[in-house]
Please model this.
Amino acid sequence: MKKIVLKLDIHYRKQRNRALRALSTVHGIDQMAVDMRDEKITVVGTVDPVAVVRVLRKLFPTAQLVSVGPWPAKEEKKKDGDKKAESGPPPPHEFTVGFLNRITNGFSGELIIGRGRHGVVYKGMQDNGEWIAVKKLHLMPGLDDEEFKNEFNNLMRVRHQNTIWLVGYCCHTTEVPVEHNGEHVSARVEERALCSEYLHGGSLDKHLSNEPCALVWHTCYKIIKGICQGLRYLHEGFEYPIYHLELKPTKILLDKDMMPKIGGFGFSKLFDSIKTFDSSEVTGTSVYMPPEYISQGKISPKFDVFSVGVIILQIMVGKQSYTKCADIPPEEFIEHVYELWVSRMHAIISKNTSREIRTCIKIALKCVESDRVKRPTINKVIEELNKIVECSFESLEHITDNFSEQNIVGRGGYGTIYKGVQDNGEEVAVKRLHSNSMPWIEDEQFKNELDNLMRVQHKNIVRLVGYCYHKSQILVEYNGELVYATMVKRAICLEYMQGGSLEYQLSDEPCRLDWEKCYNIIKGTIDGLHCLHNTHIFHLDLKPANILLDKDMVAKIGDFGLSRLFGSMQTYMTASHIKGTFGYMPPEYIDGQVISQKFDVFSLGVIMIQIMAGKEGYSNYPRTPRKEFIKHVCEKWRVRLQATMWAHVFEEVRTCIEIALKCVEADRKRRPTIAQIVNELSNIGVAKSSPIGQDFGSYYIQPAAGSLYQIPVAFVLQQTP
Model:
């Protein structure tokens, strides 16, 4: 097997399709992938490279061979620091029908793993040893090849930990002779397939029966929550919502860690912003369909919410639960289900588990309301699942091994952070506040502050999951006598971040992660800070140690120990002594204790410079002329990225370093607001006009057509207080 890479002038979708059609006639090709941005096409198979070049040059005279190598390529041994960085879906491929025939043993019945309305699903092992699921689609009259490929491209946008990743497709049309009315005629035969990741855990359906799900509660809760998160992504993760319309246990697949992933949305509808539709095209299993669809054919976001409610009921009570709950008053049904799970656990369950069970069954009953107006939105469901929990101090001692030194994962000015493992196996971060920190905050004030932080729900902010506020009376010696004193113990429980902090990724040199991950960390931090400022929360201690990374290297802002909840005023004075981390504090705070939203903007600028130029680069920038510093940083990344330095990447690098320098202006009025920074990043790739007399850099932008033009682009940020 060989991997062949070719370079050719290919700028438009029609050119891509012509190239793929031409190659599909060549014997020995298994996989094809086109990168229009880099003007390259990759072919995998046993085919002769010369034959590939010969075919392509008939359409593209300048086509040339770039490289030929073995497939699968031998993976280079990764450094320890790079282990976490490798995650995400494989690039999409157009597979040939011959390749799919080979890996499924001619679509053997022994390899069938599922059947659906649109086709039969087989598993097949690729040459690199990885399994994929191949859904061979039934004949779909009226759907031409271009429409099929467009639908596939829409689905390729779906990338979430709780949705199945599509990895490729096959679209093959041939003419075959057939006998018709005693004569031989030519008939067109279409073969289409969608290929996705293969999940070893099978479908949720195999774990369900007429009794409550046999899996432990922690796994059931993880599945329920994952389904809801995946559905929210489909409904709200795109410009147009994707409604599943056939959500049921057979469409929910489980990976080896029992993480649920929604599948079977291959031909679900992409809708615009209208909330309700009339449709007679959707078919499926009636128990998962809401009454308004069965009686009137109406489709809205509440269609899928109803299906989720039925699935939760089936997990918690059994497959016949939906009909059972209709005959029992809601409160009585909730208690009945709760007692079922308590008796299964054969022990006194924790307050957290008790809340989870009651919350899930309440959500399920709301979701299956016959009146769709009374059903919650999927956002409201997620909000209920994420509600804050009050923990006992004893339970926190238990999960952190009595706050042992071995469980410490971080330290801060206001407390020490411990890793805690709950009885159900779920990991949390427990920040135990120092006993002398925040002595002025009373019981209700502490809880109110936590509730304020709980309002902030964003993918780039560490999620608060619980708290502890424990008071006890102890005897102490005072002036030679024993007196009673009140001892207060406070702790905050947060989601645990497996990737550690950004601090671990930084050194004197630019961040060792690749540019895509660096850019996503920068953008994620900006988006998280934007959310905080929109909620009138200033962080006031933003630094790499407080930017945490999950297992997929998604950045999340944490440690709100110094944060303040402010109103609509822009600037505040504080009489208290300076608190925070030097190096990330702006001059107006160090000199005059002035606090504004530009405090966090300054900290953000420092972090961005450290990511892009390294800690040493940050210390050098005040002594380097602005233009020279920008040029130096861009050149460093250009050399590092070499051939992969596409035009849009260069624009990202330059825009980010220019934003960073604006953020660290000594005069806070010259710094941009976080909203302006978000807007500037969103304009990458869009030509901007330059004000008269303003200097600008010149660099490359790649238009949609694929040609390179040298366009002058100015970096402009409105200077407001």
